[in-house]
Amino acid sequence: MANPNPDPGTLELIRLANRITYGANRQTLAAAESLGYAGFVEWQLEDDLDDSELEGLLQQFLPTLTMDAETLADYVFEQQNFGAPARDLIIAAMIRRTYSPRQLHERIVEFWSDHFSIPVTGVVEGFFKVLEDRDLIRARAMTDFATLLRGSARSPAMLYYLDNYVNTADGPNENYARELLELHTMGVDGGYSENDVKEVARAFTGWTIRPPAEFVFNPLTHDWDPKTVLGEDIPAYGLGEGEQVLAVLARHESTARHVSTKLARRFFSDNPGDAVIDAVTGTFESTDGDVREMLRTLLLHPEVVTTPAIKFKRPMEFLAGTARALETELSDGSLGRMYSALATSGHVPFSWPAPNGYPDQRSYWQSTNGLLVRFNSADAWTNQLSGQSAVLEQAGTITDPIDQVDFLAATLRPEGMDGVSRRLMLRYANRLAESDRVSGLAAWLLAGPEAQWR
Amino acid sequence: MNRRELLKWMAITGGAAAAPSWVWASGGTLPNGRRLVTIFLRGAADGLTVCAPLGSPHYFDARPTLAVPETDALDLDGYFAMHPAASGLKALFDSGDLAIVHASGLTTAQRSHFAAQSAMEQGIDSVDLPPGTGWMSRYLESLHLDSPLAAVSLDTAVPQAMAGTDSVLAVGAIDQFSLQLDDQAQWALARAYSRDPLLDPTAHAALTAADALEPVADLSPGENYPAGPLGTALADTARLIRADSGLVAAGLNSGGWDHHDDQSDRIEPLLGELGDALTAFRNDLGAEWANTTVVIQTEFGRRVRENAALGTDHGHGGVLLVAGGGVNGGRVYADWPGLAPGDLSAGEDLAVTTDYRQVLTEMFTLQFGVADSSGIFEGFSPGPWMGIFSPSAPSAQAMSDRSLHSNHAAAPGGASSQTPSRKKVRYGDAIEIPRLPRGQGILRAG
């Protein structure tokens, strides 16, 4: 019987590809097999992977992505293109995640976009966020935690979203301080007090925005009394106080564990074991939160290498994965499909309404609505969009039904299938009219339970 | 033909034997005769604006710019008044359909949105060990329901309050919940999912619910709902009820209540939307309003003193609203702690004098026939009833003979919310996708 199931080493490669890309396909797996497990990780960690063709296309169609702050301010507010930044960001995210050769980079960009979550549902947020996404999150995604944290604290997008731009000595605003401690660094049980929230807020008084989109420290609105944060005395010396707070938080053990746990949860499992969390936390502490080093530790950890796919895909991962598995050409039609499925699933990029970012747990995403969208999407991508899929085109040229089944199974379910599944697939193939066979079987493979896990 | 006519017809023709089990989940067998609708105001609504204590001089001291002005305020009882934007809520209050419980919430202050929401949805105090399931789920589980439309989240996911039961249905918007697969495809998919025990219940519910929702989707939405997610969700809830679908509990969300700045401008449209949506919902339900209880919660109240950005930071005590038939509305219920500096929680927040579970326990006991609510709120000992709810006749009957009503069905739910106000861009379903070059083979996913 054809369609032999892959050996354990190949299965590890397939799982790795599904964890660090938005979905394995023939090209991804060919690269993984030629490079080997560690080699594939290193390749994806490289800084100089060429995505210029893709970025060139984006610049052509999404004008706000490359504008400087002055030009963008004029374009958005004077020329009244209010929705343009949000639109461009969302479309760019869908395209990059599906088509970029820098797959792991796009994944870690999404991770930080959730960690420092800022929804673009308001015009001003959209204006600031498109700049932050380019100049901080995308540019620094693979650096180190302290760099990202400092950048976020000074980012007009964050200063605006969490109200620190109006945090003053006369009227302290705790919004940023609280989420900085709770979400960005130590975690809700990380060991800070309500008083720490207030003291941190005071330390960041005067951190504000100079239009159109520049960080500025205003000594006139800064609180010039000394502060105490997490037991550490901070004398009044202006801008440096906030910097000191960020430095303390960036190297705090609660932060190391909080960020490492989230990283392991994103790439590996909803409930990563202590061994994995300890290892990544150790790397965070010994490398000052070097993102590449943490990813190496995580992805090469024996428990991660050998554990089966136990992470339920989020809608974005499922949809990008469907497009990638089918090798569907980028078109306005496929983008429109993806957007409406994301909207119905509640997973449009940059649109989670709270500062904690999209959930990263199966308990949230596994819902009837969520599965219904996936069923319908698999149907749409294999029917209406079938002409744009290299895989379906090729399957259509195969005349022997058994060969067709084998080709689709091997291509869309490279991890293989057991005898029961194969018999079910053959029974379904027999029930389908010849003209519906390729799309029907492909939809079945893509909508099936195996395709929901990574 | 409506559901009742269908049942009658089947009884005559003997067709009932072939009917799927959910057909029996009709309004006539609603457990205890009541259904529950919850709306969670995410982001912590400012209780001192929703229901402002104008009788307290400290209120005006603490809120020099944000205080609801006496001249415009909608007086409730001579002490409390509503924000003028809440005229819809005020009309419901005046007609006796709405009650307000003030200075309520989590007894132990929790000023993190996410931790406070999580505790409240699990039905615990913020210092308790999390049970992992939601309070609505524990009620639903006690009913042993089996209709696919008994428990529904009118959102893209299931709220935590409904987490833990297998089949809470998240439908998003009903008009979008339709399955494109033909029977063959459904058969093959169902067979495949039957081999994945973790996903199978959800897949099964999704395939079943799409059919069950068809008669609901055939009903047109009621009138005068405000545009926006909350109006749509309440209109859909009403359609489920009008279609006699066996709805026992519905979970809804309203987002965008976190107002650290420009609170006046931002809370006004939300209050208007909430009042208009609830009014439309009551009118839409007609006689079924009497069998419906609406609980409107938020995770905590906001700081008494306004901040310099004309907003408010995180506080403690807040408001809880209940509406529906059998609610002793038109009253503000509060063991009012006062706003004098010495009366405040942690020196700056409205204190909590009513645990939110006190209200929910009274509701379950008097309206839903739950004689012992310790299975829902374990470890919580309620005080004397506050008189918010009238005992409902069906619930009394249910207490005496629950077995009559036990053959019913439920479904699971998820949470989410929509946020910011200020200037908002609405994309709807149609984001404008740029025309892209075709046929140049420019990009294949690879």
Describe this structure in words.
In chain A, about 65% of the residues lie in helices and about 5% in strands. Chain A is mainly alpha-helical and about 450 residues long. Among the domains of chain A are: about 160-250, no CATH class; about 255-305; about 315-450, no CATH class. In chain A, the strands form 2 sheets. A two-stranded antiparallel sheet of chain A has the order 1-2. In chain A, strands 3-4 form a two-stranded antiparallel sheet. Chain A is globular. By secondary structure, chain B is of the alpha/beta class. The radius of gyration of chain B is 23 Å and the shape is globular. At the A-B interface, helix 2, helix 3, helix 5, helix 7 and helix 10 of A face helix 5, strand 7, helix 7 and helix 8 of B.
User: Which regions of chain B have little confidence, pLDDT < 50, spanning 5+ residues?
Assistant: 1-28, 395-429
Helix content of chain B: 25-40%
User: How many E-type strands of chain A?
Assistant: 4
Shape of chain A: globular
What's the CATH topology label of chain B?
Alkaline Phosphatase, subunit A
In terms of quaternary structure, the protein is: heterodimer
Instruction: Give the end-to-end Cα distance of chain A, rounded to a whole number of Å.
Output: 27 Å
Count helical runs of chain A: 24
Largest interface: A-B, 94 and 82 residues
Rg calculated over all Cα atoms of chain A: 24 Å
Beta-strand portion of chain B reads 5-15%
Biggest sheet architecture of chain B: 9 strands, mixed
- How large is the share of residues in beta strands of chain A? under 5%
The helix fraction of chain A, in percent, is 55-70%
Overall average pLDDT of chain A: 96
